[in-house]
Specification:
heterotetramer; A mainly alpha; B alpha/beta; C alpha+beta; D mainly alpha; B: alpha/beta; Rossmann fold; six-stranded mixed beta sheet; 22 helices; disordered N terminus; D: mainly alpha; MetI-like fold; 12 helices; binds adenosine-5'-triphosphate; binds magnesium ion; transmembrane helix (chain A); MetI-like_sf (chain A); membrane (chain A)
Chain lengths: ~325, ~575, ~525, ~300
């Protein structure tokens, strides 16, 4: 019992510290949101003092000292009301996040899961057929692809599939005139627009899963229970999947948990290149424009989802690994 | 249920089941290859029970894997043929080989503890086999699994458990039941009882012997323990450095061993209950006592620094009413009472044996005495040190006087440090010697434990040493601080018989020569008999019997002690 | 020079009377916000709401718009004559009362007063077809600011708005040439206002404004109008087909601001030395890939504002690189060249840091060229490029040695000089100044500016402007480098009449009010 | 020798012929190196890395022009004078590529090294200490694992702007050490329960020495693997930060080349080599490290060694 309490205490402490860091991070950056807005305006010509005052008034730039701000922020965290975004004034943070989240969750989430499953399967195959082309091709191609810079892959895909071959749309999450709704048509449209970003994430993340799975699987293949299963004449498929792969997948779940937790953060570089209206795009805008309210909310969301994903993986671990069942 | 293999009538059909012809198995290729099995030939008739003995690394498992077609790279059959029922195993393709595993050769792996898939229930293990071979109808799966699990004396409830929920002995039995489910003609048991408790080991062996009788399969029993093999097999093959050096009926091996190696193995068996116990290198203790110090004098060893001279005070280790309770390993279970109200005093210069089956709390006591763990209650005192409440920072004070010889010489030495480094550290830390003085002391220590030429050994890395040599280094390290108490926690259980006696003799010698007191922890009653004066028998953390070693072993009072003594494999018992 | 030439391929479903415009960027989606007083409004609000006059900041020309003109009976009074016959897009009449309402709205809600007109206005009166504004102090040029930046909104709608500071005005009703058509988060359209007061001048029936307009999009998707710098514009834009053309007139002066509170930059000789050591042509080339001209040291945009230029200043104010002369200046300031380094009497090298903003890449390239050139005469130059917010803060606080920045180009000559030179802006280092970041302060110049502020006579204005140009030329409050471009990309495929070097009637900008000039000047190609 | 050893234990006196010369640290290095080299994939990786390093070192000799040398025709296609064409600013792409290797390799190696050192220091102490100290470290590491990586990088980069390459390294290190620390901790925990560690306690060794002399050397392969992983991540992170314009765009690195390429829309002007080449170089450099890791894996886990088939 003391053990559980300690774990919970630690969890709460981590959460609090993360929340606090999220508060401090934006404020550590030099300049205020108004400066960021001014810098943007100044590109079009000189800005007067009155303008700055008006901007500050419009944005509702935080007042009070840092301690007061901190408590106001804690209050926001508790009530989950993060106020109005500076960058996207007068839109509220809630509005923005709820508009962006579905796209990110579906795109990045789906691709992460697909990449994990596909990579894991290929890794299993590579380890099982060790030394054959089924091993060397996925591992070599996988390690090569996982070394691609995200944005570079995105740019190349965008250019060749988008502009030269004109196979896929080049930006946005759906057609220019579409209004987001729950129709079949819109869904298809959104899917079509998701192909290139999805492909980018898939290409660059697949290799990691292949290599990870291959390595752990090769280790389990040498385990005694695999040899014993062979000695008992089990079908190769059974041995590969239910014996070797089933055990090898466990260590990879931790990485999967972190990756899943990262989904909420979106994929900044990919969303940036494809102008995809997800959380990553929002985040980049928030950070470069010093949009405290938006940044705080997004950071909190990402932090909490990583914590939750890890927690869920712990539970999954319990389900998949009888040894941890208590 | 004492097995009596020799009373059994020899197999009726004397037809050949397995024929191995000039078999060599190598690991790797070319000059660097390990020739694990060399030019081995033998025949096996239906229904035979054959033992295969040999020390660690002699190629037993390699041979076993080759016979069952389980050799994996880098292992490969360099030459020779294995004919099973007239068919060459090497000629079969993967699928044919897989199919012949039903009704063919089954193998129970050496590490039976790990042979089960930790994430699959026992029932599923059976189901996988049934499904793979289709020899049991789906409707009969449960019935058949229950039947098989019953044959190894387990209850049907076990079917729904996961391997991690079973004890080592139970897992070993499950492995055997799984192998049995293949209805094999030939079963290869590779060390089916290593890593098991003496009592459990005894029980598992009995099961195997009974099964072989009732199911009438042909069996090969691989073991490094000649005692176990002789107790059960009709015919014994002795393996040494990849070759079979002797192949003869059990009785003949025992009475008239031919190979010198076989003879050496046999010489290391004795009955701890005997009036006089002699092992190679050991005269009987009582006798030696009677002869006085003559033997010690014979060893004209004069160390340059006499360690004892610096000591004015000698302390006893006083353990009073000590208990150690570990928190429950799983929720809802009771806490583990690892040590239960144990009291004893280890006088200066005395040798005390601590025996008991696995889990009886022996190692825990060692940890308590060395302050690695703190007792839940009771007190441990060593001179003015209250060991039970010792702070980490004061460990050095304790370890100057109380040292430990570890069970496993393979893991007790850092593979990356030379012998010299391993010995120099305690010398510097405890004696304050530095530079050439420290080095001189290190060489002296090597000399004391008989590793010479000392300079050469000082420069070696652990992997360049044999197990016995390693254990000597470990002992030398324990001596480096010039301690008063040495705790030896199963110091020879990881060593081959051929190495055991030497290490034990060394310990014994040291005690006599340097006057250190020895706490000898073991489940091996024979070795306890030869190196200690007094003995304590532990069961479930509590002391069930204590007294002079020879008395207790010859005339055990407690039931548990008697069972322990019974479980000791002893080839001579067979002929007796 | 293109190995893979991207071809423009206009979407055939866009009809001939419809224009594809890269004017508005979503982030990345559009928020339906047409409140013209908000910083995050949709750009098309500028096509729906109109000012009293449209000021073309390129050539400083005023175009009467919702006001047919204004008079200034004295330097602190402005009388706007309100145009007759204008209706709101919902059919209501536009009146002087609407103008008065708008002024009052900005007074009541200071956060909407982005241009700070109420820092000039004291009171105003609404007549039948005039609005009279009384200023707090004599200030002739304020009229232009008030008239050109205040977008007039309808009283009959805005009077009922509960909180105009957050209202997003989803169904905008304005006087402008366009009304809102379809709105989707990734693209919206505006339709021609058929009852527009000069409807016959508006050629395009519809404008399409997508939310993402990457350069690749602009070049490939057949845009008709975009405001964007494209590298190798001839190869990438013109050669892409679709009758593409471009015009990059100067829209401001990119300059280096010396920090005049710091020695030795407060020494005019040092500034002259640094200025004369620069080859501005190369700096401009590096920054704008050869598309922009070097800027003269007069704070006047050429050629558009040539008529304001002081004819007595040699070479139109353009300083040519002259190392020998630069070294003379430095010598006067006590710096000599030693072993390739420019050192003062004590042997310390002249060293400075140039601050520019991260992400303003043309500036950065220009700065790097400056660094090279100054380095060549022995000045040790470091470059810093903090994030825009931090850069702005450093600039405003006067915490820098030299900073890149833009000056001029407001379209109002007085303001161009006032912002640069007036000591009214000067704040101590560490406090934020909103203009005159270099902290130039000269009572004589202040006097000229004060005169200029109340001068009603164009002759007098011209004379004062000449004096101010001389000040900039002699005292170097900022080292002009090159002109910042206005990056107009046009296609003649559907519409012609775009502003160009031959017909520089308006800035090519797609935002603010100058597009009104363009939109009312275009002609359809296929008029059928 | 006259110890009272029984005759049957003669076996203990090992065949002395097998005694090797005193082991030198170089032998260990050679052994590790040869294990890595024996792996085909690692061999390819090492050769690739060597080529990159040589190109970087000798860039001033090989490169046809200076990295920042301008004045050539802008946005030109490949030609005899400029094999890979020129940039929009009129610089030679090939020369930039060669000089850019210096930065990418430098960042990769230094950031990889630094974050490995931090991971080792923290991971090992975390694995060895118990109680409150472990909780504190656990807390800090969890924090760094939980805080989103790229955003943190962006914030730090924005905060430290103007620091050039050093700043990038700091950012990559700050955000990159935690994962390695976690991996090293679990390995430390499993090693600390080994007998030789307990034996070191009995030898009177102090914790610091136990951690760094007894445990650390046994994790060599893991640490080396961690280093290559961290270096790969650093190379990619540097490119990403530069690409987002958060780095120091005045230096010439592959990342800034991509940044400028994107900025001047190299694809639009047909300068595909300008975009393609640096990205490919990053990918190849990172691949070389990944490939070397295959060999490093084999040191600690023999099962991952390549089968020595004929
Ligand atoms: N995978 C392997 N690669 C190389 N050499 C091996 C391998 N497995 C075993 N060996 C070597 O082959 C020889 C025989 O090993 P084997 O496992 O058959 O011995 P064993 O008699 O079963 O010993 P034990 O009693 O310890 O189980 C030993 O020298 C061993 O070091
Ligand atoms: N750290 C621990 N936490 C919980 N239980 C423990 C711990 N260490 C030992 N135990 C339990 O205490 C009991 C005694 O263990 P101990 O290791 O002393 O036995 P042993 O006699 O040395 O056995 P073996 O012969 O197998 O070494 C066992 O039931 C064991 O499971
Ligand atoms: Mg074996
Ligand atoms: Mg024990």
């Amino acid at each position: 019992m003391g053990f559980v309490a300690r774990k919970l205490g630690l969890f709460a402490l981590t959460l609090w510290a993360a929340v606090t860091v999220n508060f401090l991070l934006p404020r550590l950056m030099p300049g205020t949101p108004a400066d960021a807005a001014l810098a943007k305006l100044a590109q079009n010509g000189p800005v007067t003092e009155a303008t700055k005052a008006a901007i500050e008034a419009q944005l509702g730039v935080p007042t009070g000292n840092i301690v007061e701000q901190y408590f106001a922020y804690l209050h926001q965290v508790v009530t989950l009301d993060f106020g109005i975004s500076y960058t996207f004034y007068p839109q509220s943070v809630g509005e923005l996040v709820s508009a962006a989240l579905p796209y990110t969750l579906v795109l990045v989430g789906l691709v992460t899961v697909v990449a994990f499953i596909l990579g894991t399967l290929l890794g299993v195959l590579a380890a099982w057929k060790r030394g054959t082309w089924l091993d060397s091709v996925p591992t070599l191609v996988g390690s090569f692809m996982s070394a691609f810079p995200y944005f570079w892959t995105a740019l190349l895909l965008l250019f060749f599939a988008g502009y030269v071959l004109r196979l896929f749309p080049t930006s946005g999450a759906y057609g220019p005139t579409a209004q987001p709704n729950l129709s079949f048509e819109f869904f298809g449209d959104a899917l079509y627009h998701g192909v290139l970003p999805a492909l980018t994430i898939l290409i660059t993340s697949l290799g990691g899963w292949i290599l990870g799975m291959r390595n752990t699987m090769i280790s389990t293949l040498g385990d005694d229970y695999v040899t014993f299963a062979e000695a008992n004449g089990l079908k190769p498929r059974t041995i590969a999947l239910r014996y070797a792969a089933r055990n090898a997948i466990l260590p990879n779940l931790t990485s999967f948990g972190l990756a899943l937790g990262g989904v909420v953060g979106g994929s900044i570089l990919v969303e940036q290149v494809f102008g995809y209206p997800g959380i990553g795009y929002l985040l980049f805008n928030a950070v470069t424009n010093q949009d405290y309210p938006l940044m705080q909310a997004l950071f909190l969301m990402i932090t909490v989802s990583v914590l939750i994903a890890n927690f869920l993986v712990d539970i999954l671990y319990g389900v998949l690994d009888p040894r941890t069942r208590r | 249920m004492t097995p009596t293999p020799f009373s059994q009538t020899p197999p009726a059909a004397n037809t050949t089941l397995l024929e191995v012809h000039d078999l060599s198995v190598h690991y790797g290729y070319g000059a660097g290859a390990t020739k694990a099995v060399q030019n081995v030939s033998f025949r096996l008739a239906h229904g035979e029970f054959v033992g295969l003995v040999g020390e660690s690394g002699s190629g037993k498992s390699t041979l076993g894997f080759a016979l069952t077609g389980l050799s994996k790279p880098p292992a490969h059959i360099e030459k020779g043929r294995i004919l099973f029922g007239g068919k060459d195993i090497a000629s079969l393709d993967a699928e044919q080989l897989r199919e012949q595993r039903h009704g063919g050769i089954a193998m129970v792996l050496q590490s039976g503890m790990n042979a089960l898939n930790p994430v699959r229930s026992i029932r599923n293990h059976f189901v996988d086999i049934f499904r793979a071979h289709g020899h049991v109808e789906r409707s009969r799966w449960t019935a058949r699994a229950t039947e098989l699990i019953g044959k190894v004396e387990l209850t049907p409830q076990v079917l729904d458990r996961f391997p991690g929920e079973l004890s080592g002995g139970m897992r070993q039995r499950v492995s055997i039941a799984l192998a049995l489910s293949l209805e094999p003609e030939l079963m290869v048991f590779d060390e089916p009882t290593t890593a098991l408790d003496v009592l459990v080991q005894h029980a598992v062996m009995n099961t195997i012997i009974e099964l072989q009788k009732s199911e009438n399969f042909t069996a090969i029993l691989i073991s490094h323990d000649l005692g176990i093999v002789l107790e059960s097999a009709q015919r014994v093959m002795v393996m040494h450095e990849g070759r079979i050096v002797e192949d003869a009926p059990a009785r003949q091996i025992l009475q008239n061993p031919q190979a010198p190696y076989t003879r050496m193995l046999l010489s290391h068996y004795a009955d701890p209950r005997a009036e006089v116990v002699e092992l190679p290198g050991f005269a009987d203790r009582q006798q030696r006592k009677a002869e006085g110090a003559s033997r010690t004098e014979a060893a004209t060893h004069t160390p340059t620094v006499s360690p004892r001279t610096r000591r004015t005070d000698q302390h006893a280790m006083v353990v009073e009413n000590v208990s150690k309770i570990y928190p429950a390993p799983r929720r809802g279970e009771a806490p583990v009472r690892a040590v239960d109200n144990v009291s004893f005093t280890l006088e200066p210069g005395a040798a005390l044996a601590l025996v008991g089956a696995s889990g009886s709390g022996k190692s825990t006591i060692a940890k308590l005495i060395t302050a690695v763990e703190k007792p839940t209650s009771g007190s441990i005192r060593f001179g003015d040190l209250d060991v039970g409440k010792l702070n980490r920072r004061h460990f050095r004070r304790l370890h100057r006087d109380v040292q430990m010889v570890f069970q496993d010489p393979y893991s007790a030495l850092n593979p990356l440090h030379t012998v010299e480094y391993a010995l120099t550290r305690p010398v510097i830390n405890f004696t304050g010697l530095t530079g050439t003085d420290a080095r001189r002391r290190v060489l002296e220590l090597l000399d004391i434990v008989g590793l010479s030429p000392v300079e050469e050994f000082a420069a070696k890395l652990p992997h360049q040493l044999s197990g016995g040599q390693r254990q000597r280094v470990v002992i030398a390290r324990a001596l480096a601080s010039d301690p008063q108490v040495i705790i030896a926690d199963e110091p020879v259980s990881m060593l081959d018989v051929s190495l055991r006696a030497g290490v034990l003799a060394l310990l014994e010698d040291l005690r006599e020569q340097w006057g250190v007191s020895l706490l000898y922890i073991t489940h091996d009653l024979l070795s306890a008999r030869v190196v200690t004066d007094n003995i304590m028998v532990l069961n479930g953390g509590a002391v069930v019997e204590r007294g002079v070693t020879a008395d207790v072993l010859q005339n055990p009072q407690d039931d548990y002690t008697i069972r322990l003594l019974d479980a000791i494999p002893n080839p001579r018992k067979v002929v007796a | 020079a293109c190995s893979i030439q991207i071809q423009s391929a206009p979407d055939p479903s866009i009809p001939d009377d419809t224009m594809l415009v890269a004017a508005d960027n979503g982030s990345p989606l559009f928020e339906k916000n047409f409140n013209p007083f908000m910083i995050n409004k949709r750009v098309a609000a500028f096509y729906m709401y109109e000012p009293l006059i449209v000021l073309d900041n390129l050539n400083a020309e005023e175009h009467p718009w919702l006001s047919t003109g204004y008079t200034q009976p004295d330097p602190s009074t402005i009388v706007f004559a309100i145009r007759d016959g204008v209706t709101w897009s919902d059919g209501e009449d536009f009146t002087a009362a609407d103008v008065g309402f708008t002024f009052q709205l900005l007074k009541d809600n200071p956060s909407l007063d982005l241009q700070g007109i109420w820092s000039y206005i004291d009171t105003f009166e609404v007549g039948t077809d005039t609005v009279t504004v009384h200023l707090t102090a004599p200030d002739v040029p304020a009229a232009q600011l008030i008239a050109s930046t205040t977008l007039i909104v309808p009283e009959h709608i805005w009077a009922d708005v509960e909180d105009p500071t957050t209202w997003r005005n989803p169904e905008p009703v304005g006087t402008g040439p366009y009304t809102l058509g379809n709105f989707a988060p990734q693209q919206y359209t505006v339709d021609k206002n058929q009852d527009y007061w000069q409807a016959d001048t508006v050629a395009a029936e519809h404008l399409i404004l997508p939310a993402t307009n990457t350069q690749l999009d602009v070049a490939t998707k057949g845009y008709d109008w975009a405001y964007s710098f494209i590298s190798d514009v001839d190869g990438a834009w013109v050669d892409a087909g679709n009758q593409n053309t471009y015009w990059f007139p100067p829209g401001g002066t990119i300059a280096l601001f010396p920090n005049l509170t710091k020695a030795p930059f407060n020494d005019v000789n040092v500034r002259q030395g640094l200025s004369t050591a620069l080859d501005r042509g190369m700096v401009g080339d590096a920054a704008a890939e050869g598309y922009m001209d070097p800027a003269g040291q007069t704070n006047i945009l050429l050629p558009n504002q040539a008529d304001v230029l002081n004819p007595e200043i040699p070479d139109s104010g353009l300083i040519t690189q002259d190392t020998a002369k630069a070294l003379e200046y430095f010598a006067a300031a006590g710096y000599t060249q030693q072993g390739g380094k420019l050192v003062d009497a004590s042997g310390t090298q002249l060293s400075l840091t140039i601050t520019t903003a991260a992400g303003y890449n043309d500036w950065l390239k220009g700065v790097q060229e400056v660094q090279k050139q100054w380095g060549a005469i022995g000045v040790d130059v470091k470059v810093e490029s903090p994030q825009p917010a931090a850069y702005t803060l450093a600039l405003r606080n006067g915490e820098y040695d030299f900073a890149m920045g833009a000056t001029g180009g407001t379209g109002n000559t007085f303001r161009d000089f006032n912002n640069l030179l007036s000591s009214e802006w000067v704040k101590p280092v560490g406090e934020e100044a909103s203009n005159n970041f270099e902290r130039f302060s000269d009572p004589a110049v202040d006097e000229i500016l004060a005169d200029y502020k109340v001068a009603l006579d164009p002759e007098e204005q011209a004379d004062l402007a000449n004096q101010l140009q001389q000040v900039v030329y002699d005292q170097i409050p900022s080292i002009s480098l090159y002109y910042g471009g206005s990056w107009g990309l046009f296609s003649n495929a559907k519409f012609t009449g775009w502003p160009s070097a031959d017909d520089p009637y308006a800035s090519p900008k797609t935002y603010e009010s100058t597009p009104l000039l363009v939109l009312t000047n275009l002609k359809k190609v296929n008029d059928d | 020798m006259t110890t009272s050893l029984p005759p049957t234990t003669a076996a203990i006196r090992a065949p002395l012929s097998t005694i090797d010369a005193a082991p030198s640290p170089w032998k260990v290095v050679v052994r590790v190196a040869s294990t890595v080299w024996s792996n085909g994939k690692a061999r390819i990786g090492l050769v690739m890395l060597a080529v990159f390093i040589l190109l970087a070192i000798f860039a001033p000799l090989i490169a046809p022009y200076g990295a920042r040398e301008t004045g050539f025709e802008r946005s030109a296609d490949g030609s005899a004078a400029h094999w890979l064409g020129t940039t929009a600013a009129g610089e030679d792409v090939l020369s930039q590529l060669l000089y850019g290797a210096q930065i990418s390799i430098f960042v990769g190696l230094v950031a990889g090294l630094l974050s490995t050192i931090i991971a080792v220091l923290i991971g090992l102490s975390w694995g060895y200490v118990r109680g409150f100290g472990a909780d504190v470290i656990n807390f800090v590491v969890n924090l760094f694992l939980v805080i989103p990586g790229l955003p943190l990088m962006i914030v730090i980069a924005a905060y430290l702007s103007g620091g050039g390459i050093g700043m990038i390294i700091v950012v990559v290190v700050i955000t990159g050490w935690a994962w390695g620390a976690r991996v090293l901790r679990s390995q430390t925990q499993s090693l600390r329960s080994r007998d030789f560690v307990t034996a070191a306690v009995f030898s009177g060794e102090r914790p610091f020495r136990i951690v760094f002399r007894e445990i650390l050397p046994n994790m060599t392969s893991l640490i080396v693997g961690n280093f290559f992983g961290a270096a790969t991540a650093a190379i990619l992170a540097e490119a990403g930060l530069e690409f987002l314009g958060l780095g120091d765009s005045t230096v010439v690195s592959w990342g800034t080349m991509l940044f400028w390429a994107q900025n001047s829309n190299a694809l639009l002007t047909g300068q595909w080599a300008l975009l393609f080449a640096p990205g490919l170089c990053i990918a190849l450099l990172a691949t070389s490290l990944t490939l070397i890791n295959f060999g490093v894996d084999g040191i600690s886990n023999p099962r991952l060694r390549e089968g020595t088939k004929k």
